[in-house]
Amino acid sequence: MKSQKKYFIKTFGCQMNVYDSWRIAAMLDARGMVASKDVADADVIILNTCSVREKATNKVFSELGRIRDAKKSGALFGIVGCVARETGAKAFHRIPDLNFVLGPQSYHRLPQILENPDAKLLNIDLGGLEKFDEMPQIVHAPVVSYIPIQEGCNHCCTYCIVPYTRGPELSRSFNDVIRDTLHAAKTGAIEICFLGQNVNGYKYTDENGKIYRLSDLIRETAKMPEIQRIRFTSSYPTEMTDDLIQMFKTEHKLLPFLNMPIQSGSPDVLKRMNRPYSLDAYIKIINKLRDARPDIQISSDFIVGFPGETDNDFEQTLKIAEQIKYINSYSFKYSPRPHTAAALMPNQIPENIKRERLAVLDSALNEIQRKFNEKCIGKTLPCLCEGADKTGHHLIYRTPYMQQCIVACPKDTACPTMANIKITAANRASLRGEYVKN
Ligand code: SAH
Ligand code: F3S
Question: Residue 392 sits in a domain of what CATH number?
Answer without folding.
Answer: 2.40.50
